[in-house]
C-alpha cells in the first residue's frame, strides 16, 4: 500500500482553508483593553453601578447586565448521550480512486488532503464523568469536502444494542442514572439497565462487546471505529454496493484492565483526553486507516444474518475490509467550547456517492441527530458556527432564526422566482440524487423475521475471544450484575446468557449468587472471527509511556542509555521520585524528577524501569510507595525492566520468585514473563531493545496463574 507520507503533495488548499476559516474567528486578547460585546471600552469591571456606594444596583448598568446575562447562558444543554467528548483536527487522504464504487469526490484523488474534525466520546456519563468508565466510545468524524460536509458518526464497537431506533429512548433511559435518586453516574451496573437487558434479548450480542475489554480502551489513539449501520456506495453509473465503514488505528487496538480503569477514574479522570492532547502536542500524531467492507446488492441475503441488522457485524473473514485511505490528527483545538462542544454531527450529512439503507436504526438516527442539535445549539442556524460551517459555499432560501450570522442580500427568499432568474437553482447534473431503491409493502408496525436471531453472533463473539479476554468478560459480568440488588434479575441474566454459552452462564452464576443453568444452552455456532479478538492486533511500542523510578545515587548510564533507546523508539519517559526536583547520580550527575508518588500512579504508565545504583535501590526498597508502584504494574501484566542493583530492589517485590528465576550475573539480558533484567554490563543496547519489545506486547498475560484461565 502506498505510503501517503512519501507522496509529493499538491498544495492543500482545502485543508488550509478550513484552518484559516476557523482562525478568522480566533481572537488574541493579549495587550488589549476591556470592552463590552458591542466594542465599547470599559472603565471598570469590579463594581456594579449603584445609587450610592451602599445603594441598590441601577437597571441602567448595561455592563453588569450584559456580563451577567452571558454568564447565565454560557452553558448549552449537554448532549443526552455522548456528553463527555474530546476532539482534534486533522486531514484525510485516500490511497487510490474509488471510482468503481462511489462518486464521492474526497475518495478519488490521493494527492488531496480533506480537512477533518474528530470527536471521541463516552455515551452514558455526563460531561463531568470520568474518561475510563466501562462504556461504548463514540468516534465521530466530520469531513469538510468540496461537495459539502460528510459526517461518519461511528462507535468503537461494530454493533449496537437495539434493532430499531424507536427503542433508543428506552435503552438510554434504562442505562442512565435511575430517576428516583440519580444514581449511578456513567455506569451500567444497576437494576434498571439489567432489567431492560433481560427483557430485551436483542441486546445479548452488544452486552458481550460492552463487557469485553473493548469498553475500556487504553487510548482514543488505540481504538477502532465502526460506522455500525449499513450504508451504500453509489457510483457515477448509479450502481450501488452495501458497505460498512471501519477505522483501523495504526497503533493497534489496546485496552486497560478493569482495576486500572477504576483507579484511573479517581487519579486522572481526564486520562484519555490528556493522552490525545499530549500526543498531538508532542508530534505523535494519531493515525487511522479507513476501511470498507463492500457487498454486492445481489449478495444481500447470502448470510445467516440480516445485513441491515445493527446488532450484527459482518465477519471480516467473510467480507474482508478493504483499506482505502488514512486519517491523521495533527492539531488540537484552540477552544474546547467553540469547537468540541459546539460541533454538530448528523449521519444524514452525506455527499453524492454515499447513501442510506433501510436499516431501521439508521432510519431513526436520520431524524434524531438533527432534532437534537436544534435544542442543544438554540435553533436552525447551528451550521453557521465556525466548526460546523462547510468549505463548500451555501446558497439557499433559508433565512432568519436564532443566531443567524449570514447577511443574505436581495429581496428573494423563495423558489421558483423570476426576480433572480430562479437563483439559487437546483443542479440536476451535480446535485445529490438519492439511490432509486424500489420500495413496496404495506404500512405495518412490525419487525422482519430475519432480525430475530438474538444469540448466534453473541456466541460467535465469545468463541473468538482468547482465554484472558473470556476471563475479563466473566469478571465484568461479576462486577456489573453483582451490583444488581434484585435477585430475580440476576437469575434472568444467567438464564439469558445460557443461550450464548453454558460455561459462560455457569461462571456468571458463581460470581453473582445465582443458580447455574440446569440445562445445556448455547447453540450450534462453533465458528470464530479472529479479527474481533484484541489479542490479534498490531503491537508496537511507539507512543507508550514509561515511568523511571529514580532516587539519589542512581546509575546515570543506566538511566540515560535506556531513556535514549526508548525515545528513539517513540516511547515517552517520565522520572518519578519521592520528591519532585533535582536528583544526583552515584557519580554526581544531575537528573530532574517531574513526578512524585502523590502526583502520579502506576496505572498511568505502560511500563516501569528501575535503574542500578546501590543507594537508589536501597531507598526504593525502603519506600512503600515505590514497592506498591512496581507491584501494581506487575499485577496489571505490564512490562518491567531493571538493571544492575535495581534488580535487588525487584527481588523485594512480588516479582521475586515469579519472574526473576534463572537470572545470573553474566551480563546477558534475561526476559521472563515481561520482566527484562541485566547485570554487570556497560552495554545496554540489547537490554533497551528487549525492553521495547516487552512494552510493545502491551500485556504479559502468562503471569496469570494457569488456574485463572478459562476452562475449555
TrEMBL record:
Q: Where is the composition biased (Polar residues)?
A: 34-46
Q: Where, by residue number, is the active site? A: 82, 155
Keywords, A to Z, come to:
Heme, Hydrogen peroxide, Iron, Metal-binding, Oxidoreductase, Peroxidase
Lineage, top-rank taxon, reads Bacteria
Q: Which EC number(s) are documented for this chain?
A: 1.11.1.6
**Region annotation Disordered: where it falls in the sequence:** 1-54
Tell me the InterPro entries matching this sequence. Answer: Catalase, Catalase_AS, Catalase_clade2, Catalase_clade2_helical, Catalase_core, Catalase_haem_BS, Catalase_immune_responsive, Catalase_large_C
Q: Name one GO biological process term.
A: hydrogen peroxide catabolic process
Q: Where is the composition biased (Basic and acidic residues)?
A: 1-18
The Catalase core domain, residue ranges: 35-423
**Function of this protein?**
Decomposes hydrogen peroxide into water and oxygen; serves to protect cells from the toxic effects of hydrogen peroxide.
The UniProt family comment states:
Belongs to the catalase family. HPII subfamily.
Q: What is this protein called?
A: Catalase
Amino acid at each position: 500500500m502506498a505510503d501517503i507520507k512519501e507522496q509529493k503533495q499538491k498544495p492543500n488548499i482545502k485543508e488550509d482553508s478550513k484552518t484559516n476559516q476557523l482562525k478568522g474567528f480566533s481572537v488574541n486578547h493579549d495587550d488589549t483593553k476591556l470592552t463590552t460585546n458591542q466594542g465599547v471600552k470599559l472603565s471598570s469591571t469590579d463594581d456594579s453601578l449603584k445609587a450610592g456606594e451602599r445603594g441598590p444596583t441601577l437597571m441602567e448598568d448595561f455592563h453588569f447586565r450584559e456580563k451577567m446575562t452571558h454568564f447565565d447562558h454560557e452553558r448549552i444543554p449537554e448532549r443526552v448521550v455522548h456528553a463527555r467528548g474530546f476532539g482534534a483536527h486533522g486531514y484525510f487522504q485516500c490511497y487510490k480512486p474509488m471510482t468503481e464504487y462511489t462518486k464521492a469526490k474526497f475518495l478519488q484523488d490521493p494527492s488531496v488532503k480533506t480537512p477533518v474534525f474528530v470527536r471521541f466520546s463516552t455515551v452514558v456519563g455526563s460531561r463531568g464523568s470520568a474518561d475510563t468508565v466501562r462504556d461504548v466510545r463514540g468516534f465521530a468524524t466530520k469531513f469538510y469536502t468540496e461537495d459539502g460536509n460528510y459526517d461518519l458518526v461511528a462507535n468503537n464497537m461494530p454493533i449496537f444494542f437495539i434493532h430499531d431506533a424507536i427503542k433508543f429512548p428506552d435503552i438510554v433511559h434504562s442505562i442512565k442514572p435511575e430517576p428516583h435518586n440519580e444514581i449511578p453516574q456513567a455506569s451500567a451496573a444497576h437494576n434498571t439497565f439489567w432489567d431492560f437487558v433481560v427483557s430485551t434479548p436483542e441486546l445479548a450480542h452488544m452486552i458481550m462487546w460492552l463487557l469485553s475489554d473493548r469498553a475500556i480502551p487504553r487510548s482514543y489513539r488505540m481504538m477502532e471505529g465502526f460506522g455500525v449501520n449499513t450504508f451504500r456506495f453509489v457510483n457515477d453509473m448509479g450502481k450501488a454496493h452495501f458497505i460498512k465503514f471501519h477505522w483501523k488505528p495504526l497503533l493497534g487496538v489496546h485496552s486497560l484492565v478493569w482495576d486500572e480503569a477504576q483507579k484511573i477514574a479517581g487519579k486522572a479522570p481526564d486520562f484519555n483526553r490528556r493522552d490525545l492532547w499530549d500526543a498531538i502536542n508532542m508530534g505523535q500524531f494519531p493515525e487511522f486507516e479507513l476501511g470498507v467492507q463492500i457487498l454486492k446488492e445481489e449478495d444481500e441475503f447470502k448470510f445467516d444474518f440480516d445485513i441491515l441488522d445493527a446488532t450484527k457485524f459482518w465477519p471480516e473473514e467473510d467480507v474482508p475490509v478493504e483499506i482505502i485511505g488514512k486519517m491523521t490528527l495533527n492539531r488540537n483545538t484552540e477552544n474546547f467550547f467553540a469547537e468540541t462542544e459546539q460541533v454538530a454531527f448528523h449521519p444524514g450529512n452525506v455527499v453524492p456517492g454515499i447513501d442510506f439503507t433501510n436499516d431501521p436504526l439508521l432510519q431513526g438516527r436520520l431524524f434524531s441527530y438533527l432534532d437534537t442539535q436544534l435544542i442543544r445549539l438554540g435553533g436552525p442556524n447551528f451550521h453557521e458556527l465556525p466548526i460546523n460551517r462547510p468549505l463548500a459555499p451555501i446558497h439557499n432560501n433559508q433565512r432568519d432564526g436564532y443566531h443567524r450570522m449570514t447577511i443574505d442580500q436581495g429581496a428573494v427568499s423563495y423558489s421558483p422566482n423570476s426576480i433572480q432568474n430562479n437563483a439559487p437553482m437546483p443542479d440536476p447534473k451535480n446535485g445529490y440524487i438519492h439511490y432509486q431503491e424500489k420500495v413496496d409493502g404495506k404500512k405495518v408496525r412490525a419487525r422482519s423475521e430475519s432480525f430475530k436471531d438474538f444469540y448466534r453472533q453473541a456466541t460467535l463473539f465469545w468463541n473468538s475471544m482468547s482465554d484472558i479476554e473470556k476471563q475479563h468478560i466473566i469478571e465484568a459480568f461479576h462486577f456489573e450484575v453483582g451490583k444488581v440488588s434484585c435477585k430475580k434479575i440476576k437469575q434472568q441474566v444467567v438464564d439469558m446468557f445460557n443461550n450464548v454459552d453454558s460455561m459462560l452462564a455457569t461462571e456468571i452464576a458463581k460470581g453473582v449468587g445465582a443458580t447455574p443453568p440446569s440445562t445445556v444452552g448455547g447453540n450450534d455456532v462453533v465458528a470464530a472471527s479472529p479479527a474481533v479478538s484484541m489479542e490479534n492486533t498490531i503491537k508496537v511500542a511507539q507512543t507508550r509511556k514509561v515511568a523511571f523510578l529514580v532516587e539519589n545515587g542512581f546509575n546515570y548510564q543506566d538511566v540515560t542509555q535506556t531513556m535514549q533507546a526508548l525515545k528513539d523508539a517513540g516511547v515517552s519517559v517520565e522520572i518519578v521520585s519521592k520528591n519532585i526536583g533535582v536528583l544526583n547520580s552515584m557519580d554526581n550527575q544531575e537528573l530532574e524528577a517531574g513526578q512524585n508518588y502523590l502526583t502520579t500512579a502506576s496505572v498511568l504508565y505502560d511500563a516501569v524501569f528501575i535503574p542500578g545504583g546501590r543507594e537508589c535501590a536501597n531507598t526504593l526498597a525502603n519506600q512503600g510507595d515505590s514497592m506498591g508502584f512496581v507491584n501494581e504494574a506487575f499485577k496489571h501484566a505490564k512490562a518491567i525492566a531493571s538493571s544492575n542493583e535495581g534488580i535487588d530492589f525487584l527481588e523485594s517485590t512480588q516479582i521475586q520468585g515469579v519472574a526473576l528465576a534463572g537470572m545470573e550475573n553474566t551480563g546477558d539480558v534475561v526476559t521472563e514473563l515481561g520482566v527484562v533484567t541485566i547485570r554487570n554490563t556497560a552495554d545496554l543496547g540489547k537490554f533497551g531493545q528487549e525492553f521495547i519489545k516487552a512494552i510493545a506486547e502491551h500485556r504479559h498475560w502468562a503471569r496469570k496463574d494457569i488456574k485463572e484461565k478459562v476452562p475449555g
